[in-house]
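Changelog note: in this version the structure field was regenerated for every chain. One regenerated record is shown below for reference.
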Amino acid sequence: MNHESATAITRRQALGVFGALPLFAAGGKYRIGITTNTRGGWEKDVWLSFREAREVGYRRVETFIHYFTDFMDRPAELKKKVDDIGVSFVTISNGGPMEMHFEDPSKHEKIIEEHLRLVRFIKHFGCTHLKINCGPRRPQGATGEDLKHMADVLEKIGRKSSEEGVKFAPHAHMWSQYENRREVDYILGHTDPKHVWFVLDTGHITMAGIDPVELTRTLGHRIVEFHLKDTKPENKGGAKQRLDRPDMMNDPCFFPLGSGGVDFPAIKAHLDKIGWDGHFTVELDSSPFRPPKESARMSLRYIESVLGLKA
């Protein structure tokens, strides 16, 4: 299937499937959270990150499963720890010890088993969607054959996740096998929107050369969560040149909200219009110029003062 037909299918599926869904009240429902594995002080101490996020004013947190491998068979203990801090989970992402080579069909059985285990684990915390990354990018990028295999296994996981009552939502991420518009269009055009959803990361989408405002308008309710990060002003509307993975502590490409590279008010205006209901999750990949707590505070201040939302 060529790029244009994949795009057409993506738009048809993203918009058409929602015709039978009830409209949400004007303004929608925005659940504000923060991903807390921020390099520069939070990445090695998940409990510190949760405590400081709560002190800033966030009540919902998101992080990766590698922090909690010891709790996989003891979810009640983990729930008590986060309850005692005063936060709840947006979701808990895959990664770390899990198999993530979705493009390799020889690994699909293991991938399905591990991701369904994670789906069942996050249900203990009231999570309604599983956000996943698609593993490291191969030197040649994602080939047509890679995308075919990826769509096949993502669809299988999505259908089984739906049976568990959890939405399955791949995250397009720079330097992964699921990065650019061609890949987004293919995966969403070759999977059922009832079973495979989308996490739109405003920073990664921008640096992949895509306008996050346009993609928001195209995908609408197929987006279950936004990861909110900003970029340099010159990248607004989509970076003109692909960026190789930088040193995030010395030359970051992502910043707290308000740097000027992402038009967050335009994104919210469209979401208000369609009555979107989902998660706005601040993500600070690194905080090299100040403690993560202060970067988190800057983004929350922007959300409250510019977007008019409360955590």
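Spot check on this record: The CA atoms of residues 139 and 290 lie 34 Å apart. The two ends are 43 Å apart (CA to CA).
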